[in-house]
Amino acid sequence: MNLAAPPGRTTGLPLGALLALATSVFLGCLTEVVPAGILLPASAGLGVSPAATGQLVTVYAITTALTAVPLTAATARVPRRTLLLVLVAGFVVTNGVIAVSPWFALVLAARIVSGAITGVLWSLVANYAMRLVPVERSGRALAVAMAGTPVGFALGVPAGAALGAFLGWRWVFVVMGLIALPLLRWIWLAVPPLPGEPAGDRPRLRTVLRTPGLRPLLVLVIAFSLGHNIFYTYLGPFYAERGHPGLLSTGLLLFGLATVAGLWLVGLVLDRYPRAVLLGCAATGATAIVVLALGGHDTVVLLVAGALWGLAFGGAPTSFQAVTARLAGRRADTAQSLTIASWNGAVAGGALTGGIVLDTVAAALPWAAATLLLVPILLAGPVTSSGSDPARSRR
User: Fold this and answer.
1) In angstroms, what CA-CA distances link 383 with 131, 156, 180, 279, 372?
2) N or C: which end of the chain has fewer CB within 10 A?
């Protein structure tokens, strides 16, 4: 077997290229979550209710879930760097439309397009990063490339809220468009071009779904994302019920900072211990949520448990994508798109399910989330044993 790195791959970490990919991910994450921080001024500016404006986040996640698989398959033959440039340029256009549009319907349409862009972006970046390095460094490369996600969550909502309050909510989207312009040149200069998949190599969806371990992995991803979002979406009401309505911004900030640390820790050990990472993320997250449920009104306990939850969450999406690559092969964009679709479908489902639980038995909210996080603990063994063959990752 020829283990030499193919063209475009290096024996170390190409930080310039990986950081450009991370910035692309950061832009996608920022575009997704920033409306949550400018909900009230945006609703006033567009002349709709805050509940309607909140759907700008929901429709984004649903669109990402629905389009990730078909659009990833449709763009599989496009050269990778060219596709990445088109996607980033798409963010420039859609954020620009939102910045100037006086009509809510047009803003909603732009958000739908942005969600479709993001579904392809997640799948593309994951495999791009791993194709740039040798197999034994793929987890670390993926952790660097996906660092834009926790940074986006940590900074996106508070930074967007501050900028919206200072300059106006439309300027938030202008700034995101301006971030993308120098990013286009950075990608062109720093990210090596890689070919798309030849037509004959493109796997059928049913064939990919028969990959050993992939279907339990998708169940694992759905359970983790559903459990997380059932509770995370409604942290505000949870803190208010505990007598700390003003604790939300601090709690979210600590959570976001902890996700960055969690991703760094996962990047250090993911290549060697994928099963331990999956078990650790799920078990730590479940424990933290239980502590939140039992923590009463103690501010320190609530904040520390929230930060521990963020630590567990930080590396989870990256570990899911890395394990997907171990199962289906490093060029299996279709498998990655299934993981992305499962994750984002559960984001929308978690918000919906959590709202129902909140309106019926609010006290059950953290327990429902913690119970769902037990599913990844049960499935981590079968999933990782199916992807234990290193040769599979080199295809």
Assistant:
1) 22, 33, 37, 11, 17
2) N
User: What CATH number matches the domain at 15-200, 3.40.50.1820, 3.40.109.10, 2.60.40.10, 1.20.1250.20?
Assistant: 1.20.1250.20
pLDDT in tens, 207-233: 777 778 888 888 999 999 999 988 887
Prediction pTM value: 0.77
pLDDT > 60? residue 382? yes
Q: How confident is the model at residue 394 (pLDDT cuts 50, 70, 90)?
A: very low
> Are the CB atoms for 382 and 213 separated by under 8 Å?
yes
Rounded distance, CA 311 to CA 264, Å?
10
First and final C-alpha spacing in the chain: 11
Domains 15-200 and 205-388 share a fold: yes
- Which residue in the block uniquely carries the two structure tokens 């805050």? 50
* Whether residue 365 has pLDDT greater than 80: yes
Whether residue 267 is predicted with pLDDT greater than 50 in this model: the reply is: yes
Read off the pLDDT band of 296 (50, 70, 90): confident
What CATH number has the domain spanning 205-388?
1.20.1250.20
DSSP 5: P
Quick one: average pLDDT of 314-328?
A: 82
DSSP 157-224: HHHHHHHHHHH-HHHHHHHHHHHHHHHHHHHHHHSPP-----GGGPPPHHHHHTSTTHHHHHHHHHHH
Q: Give, for 16, the enclosing helix (H) or strand (E).
A: helix 15-33
Question: Where do the structural domains in the chain lie, given as residue ranges?
Answer: 15-200, 205-388
Give the whole-angstrom CA distance, residue 381 versus residue 266: 18
State both tokens at 117. 């862009």
Single-letter amino acid, residue 109: A
Write down the pLDDT at residue 148: 82
